Amino acid sequence: MHQCYSLDKSWRRPKKGNVLIAGSPLRIFRLSTAGQAIAELLEQNGEAPSSGQLLVTRLIDAGALHPLPSLEGDAPTVHDISIVIPLFARSENDISRVQNFAAEFSAFPHVVVVDDASPIAFPEMPNTNVTVHRQEVNKGPGAARNAGLTFVSTPYVVFIDADVQCAPEDICELAKWWNLPQLAVLAPRVKSLKWFQYGAAISAYESAAISAYEEVRSPLDMGAFPARVRAGTRVSYVPSALLLCSVSALAAVGNFDESLRTGEDVDLIWRLDAAGYSCRYEPSVEVHHLPRTTIQQLAEQRIGYGESAALLAQKHHGALAPLRVSGWSTGVWASIALGFPIIGGVVAAGTAVTLSRKLRFLPDAEKESARLATLGHLHAGKQIASAVTRVWWPIAVLLALVSRRARWALCLAAFVPALSDWWTSRPHLDPVRYTLLRWVDDMSYGFGIWKGVVREGNYDALIPELSSWPSNMQQKTSTEA
Q1: Mean pLDDT throughout 207-219?
Q2: What pTM value is reported for the model?
Q3: 69-91 residues labelled b (16+ CB within 10 A) or e (exposed)
Q4: Is-contact 245 157, C-beta < 8 A?
Q5: What are the domain boundaries of the chain?
């Protein structure tokens, strides 16, 4: 099978030598002579010889390399895929929209609409390929998808939420990226529908502002770069708004966990990954979902996401840590926050020196180590600020009431990242409203986390994970190819 690949955005091979720095989390690969030749081919034309498959597989698993669609035409086709649409209809408009939506997939073998005990029953659609199954009791989206799976006889299934806008062509395009033997889930990019495409329903001032905000900061949008999906990486989960899945892989891990009302998609991805399957995110295929229309809806959605963290933390110990940084970076930023920037600078410099000794095999080891240390500390600073305003804000507010320094630190954490993101993303929204909506977003999610951990009595979702990354970096250099 002829297969081509694209390099991850993190890919760096200093001086085109025998050291490759790439992946998520960042890893260092020491390449043999044969490995260097394979890396050069990948950099030149995205191809690798069959003899290099072991290295290619390891790079894909590390998130350093991404497969492109196969040229052999062995991807799933329309005839291999069924469609399952979970639905909780609140109005006749919801019914009409899903009826029209389901009818668009007439070329697929089977479309299953699972009515999850909606107040307004979804009607049968006779003389079509659509089966309507009504749940007697509302059990949540995970249970609805599992119920839909019982009607599926094809090897692949696509789950599509009722508020997603996509065309059959999008499913066919996504299926072309099904190109790994152990692939279980493939997800497209889910973007929020732009306010000027949403029409009169979002003409209100509040709704237009929320739509503009979600256009650049939707919790369903995993970004512009492809990724292997795994806990603790750049793309740690993909939303179930639209997922192309292997039916056999789902069955092997017991399908969706019906005990989870939210977070069931995150749990499924992590269980599949733990079972040895591959889950991938492909942003070249885009679908759209309807944005929230009120601040209350936005806050309720984020609170629900936050509440799921405690339950997920019980099932996946350590995966929900709100902060993952090195002890070195913690020391740097703690020194600065406590009013000792010189000490922070000394710690940062010491990190670079220590790292250069551990990575002396790198070309220009001092320069590369300084670069890695600087980027690591900056990334850690952003993570710390996010944790303070998103998860630990109740503690931060209490400290701010009694400490002037804590007030300054909280203000910096609240304003600097928000304004930096506004400047980078340039939404159709002024910085004041963007910042306010971001605060509502973050604080609602954090409130949901605290609500969940108190209810469940499990505080893992509040506990940071600290490490000494120069030591960890050294351990990851043992990869030879």
Answers
A1: 89
A2: 0.89
A3: bbeeeebbeeebbbbbbbbbbee
A4: yes
A5: 5-67, 78-292, 324-478
